[in-house]
Amino acid sequence: MNKMPRTFGIRAKSRVFTRIIGCLSPLLLILLIAATADDPAGPTNPPAPTDPPAAPAPAPSSPPTKIDSSTPLPFQILRRSPEGLPVIPLQVQGQRFEVELAADDTSRRRGLGGRTRFLPGTGMLFVHPDDQIRGYWMYDCLIDIDVAFLDRDGRIVAMHRMKREAPRRSAEYQDMYQRRLKRYTSRRPARYALEVPPGDLTRLKLKIGQTIHLPKSELDKLAR
Predict the structure, then answer these.
(1) What is the pLDDT of residues 30-52, one digit of tens each?
(2) What gap in Å lies between CA 191 and CA 221, rounded to an integer?
(3) Which pTM does this prediction carry?
(4) Which helix or strand (DSSP H or E) is residue 202 part of?
(5) What pLDDT does 69 receive?
(6) What b/e string do you get for 182-220 counting C-beta neighbours within 10 Å, with b at 16 or more?
(7) Using 50, 70 and 90 to split pLDDT, how confident is the model at 72?
(8) Fewest C-beta in 10 Å: which of 1, 27, 131, 133?
(9) Phi, psi (deg, nearest 5) at residue 38
(10) pLDDT given at position 73
(11) CA-CA distances (angstroms) from residue 60 to 53, 56, 222?
(12) What are phi and psi of 109, to 5 degrees?
């Protein structure tokens, strides 16, 4: 039997190897793609933290409103008190009060008689039709009261802490009761008297000669 040339054997093997490689290449490519899909990429670095947004700068605060105590509050009847008296706003040393107006004989005589409490920020303003030396007492008054007498321009002419008096006894005649009540006078002619809760005149540092600005023209029209 004839022997095949050596070169023929080498070429035949080469062709076989090439065919094998050709058949395996698509399979290797598929396996490589699958492996790549199954193997996720390595851990990615988290994004670098960013500084939180800076808080907006606070708006500059406006200076506190300064209350002008040199002018009266506009005259305005806010409501009627349970006793039926008009209530108006009044400014004293920069503090707002809501005061009842006692502008006729009946309301001036009654005043705060019979009241059992005096709420902060409230008061009673007595309005007289003329200027006289006034004398007040604590007739039937059950609470202490501060009073400032004012002249026609609202200037303080006298101040008192009026103390609650012992109530009238059952066997006490009215004239006897009235005689024992202490009088608090204006010492000088006064047209107005402002009654406020006890201690307020001291707290507000009011002094004789100071002015409480009142809506005088409107008040004087109400006086009877």
Answers:
(1) 444 444 444 444 444 445 545 45
(2) 13
(3) 0.69
(4) helix 200-203
(5) 57
(6) eebebeeebbbbbbbbbebbeebebeeebebbbbbebbb
(7) confident
(8) 1
(9) -75, -25
(10) 87
(11) 20, 12, 46
(12) -65, -40
